Amino acid sequence: MTLTDTHDDSQLFPAVSAKLLITILIAGAAADLTWEIWARGITPFIVGGPLEPAALVRSVFGMKSKVLSELIHLIVGVVFYPIGYLFIARPLQRRILPNLPLLLTGIGFGAGLWVFALYVMAHLIAGLPAFLNFGLLAWVSLAGHSLFGVVCAYVVWYREH
User: Fold this and answer.
1) Could you say which of 23, 41, 84, 113 would form a disulfide bridge with 159 (CB–CB 3.0 to 4.6 Å)?
2) Structural domain contains residue 11
């Protein structure tokens, strides 16, 4: 497996197809599973408790249902984040840093998701401290989002090759 994403420069965005939809769902499911293992299985050993993205969803939308907020987070992770990778993050990387290794592209995508989660959603919308005051919870969240981004990028790469 190469560490550089080679691509056809004339094709910045992927062609919309059934294969792309399947790629989105597989990449999203694999990345979300990785996130969940990190957030609920590993993070408690580091910070004493799991990452709780559903709690953030409840804060942002003023919801009371934990089940509904978990479902929203699942759909966002499995469907919308991989779409963001394919149609925003990867095209930007290909135009701005075309020789960036795939690993770094995935980490960058994950870092972007982390900024969206902990600055835009948590701070600007829910009113929590920006990046949770850069405490340990913020850093384990960055690691989890980075893992998500890397898995998403590699699954997409694998499906396209």
Assistant:
1) 23
2) no
First to last CA, the chain: 10
Q: Which residue range is the domain that position 96 belongs to?
A: 18-160
| Start-end of H helices in 37-101 | 43-47, 53-61, 66-75, 81-84, 90-96
Helices (H), 76-135: 81-84, 90-96, 102-115
CA dist., res. 114 & res. 69, Å (int): 18
Residue 153 lies in a domain: yes
Reported as a single tens digit per residue, the pLDDT across 7-27 is 665 689 999 999 999 999 999
Domain count, the chain: 1
Report if residue 61 sits inside a domain: yes
pLDDT in tens, 73-111: 999 999 999 999 999 999 999 999 999 999 999 999 999
* 101 beta partners: 4
Q: Which residues share a beta bridge with 4?
A: 101
